[in-house]
Amino acid sequence: MSSDFVIIVICVIGFAVLIGRLVKLMLDIAERKRLEAQMTGAEELLARAAKADESGFTPAFIRGIMRARRAELIRKGLPDALDMIANSLTAGLTLPQALLRNLEHFPPGVGEEFARVIYDTRLGYSVAAAFVNLSERLPTSDIRMIATASEIGVAHGGNLADSYHMLSKLLRDNMAFESELKAMTTEGRMQALVMSILPFAMMIILGAVNPQFIVPMVTTVAGWGTICVLLLMQGLAYLWIRVIVDIKV
Q1: What is the Rg, in whole angstroms, of the alpha carbon atoms belonging to the chain?
Q2: How far apart are CA 75 and CA 67, in angstroms?
Q3: 65-114, pLDDT tens digit by residue?
Q4: How far apart are CA 107 and CA 84, in angstroms?
């Protein structure tokens, strides 16, 4: 009796770990597809080339996740970087001089991209063209706004420092709103997690109270079929709830 109960508990724990792995994999794939759907232009070409490169040591979807995380890191550092550039422009520096002066003080990721902007200008590109190249490397809405403001400010004049200050405030407001929205949907995500764990917790409790009640689930074909259907439905329910609480802004 005791050995059967131990086997049942091990099987239940193994299935719980398996469903957790499967759900995590499905979430990673869904997040990658959502981020790839936002990519256009040169970023799409890079993603296709990465998928076509089967000889690479890193799978394509992992490279996509790493690229998305780096883009998010750059996005979080853009407001501070824009304020630094705007302050230098207010002091009388040109845009390339402002970039070079603050290069070592930019947040991680942002400094690398602005260093490439400076490098493009030294290769003969205009400042506007260098920012266009930046928007092609990172085709997000935030970078496009910065590239457009820089291109217009350099080509047609205007107070570029004020434009950068306004963009910085806009980006901070957007990120604050997204954080508030994420906090408001935390309850829904927690419900998805609890509902996914509850059936397996009930199986463990029933196995502790009456092991013979659980034995048919791991010793018969019908029992294994029930477990497979349970795993499938729990995974779909978890993903469906995450889709509901994943509000696009």
Answers
A1: 26
A2: 12
A3: 777 788 888 888 899 999 999 999 998 888 888 988 888 888 888 888 88
A4: 11
Q: Which of 62-71, 151-160, 214-223 has the lowest mean pLDDT?
A: 62-71
Q: What are phi and psi of 15, to 5 degrees?
A: -65, -35
**Sign of the dihedral defined by the CA atoms of residues 158, 161, 162, 165, in that order:** positive
3-state class (DSSP) for residue 54: coil
Q: What is the DSSP string of 136-159?
A: HHS--HHHHHHHHHHHHHHHH---
With a CB cutoff of 8 Å and minimum separation 6, the contacts of 27 are 239, 242
For the chain, give percent helix, strand, coil, nearest 5: 85, 0, 15
Residue 137 and residue 43 in contact, taking contact as beta carbons nearer than 8 Å: yes
Please report how many Cα atoms fall inside a 13 Å half-sphere around the Cα of residue 1, on the Cβ side.
Answer: 7
Burial of 78 (0-12, 13-18, 19+ CB in 10 A): buried
Listed in sequence order, the residues at least 6 apart from 240 whose beta carbon sits closer than 8 Å to its beta carbon are none
| DSSP track, 3-20 | HHHHHHHHHHHHHHHHHH
Rounded distance, CA 87 to CA 64, Å? 35
Handedness of CA 139, 141, 38, 172 (dihedral sign): positive
What values do phi and psi take at 232, rounded to 5?
A: -65, -50
Cβ contacts of residue 131 below 8 Å, gap of 6+?
117, 146, 147, 150, 151
pTM: 0.58
- 120 pLDDT exceeds 50? yes
Taking every pair of Cα atoms in the chain, the longest distance, rounded to a whole number of angstroms, is 84
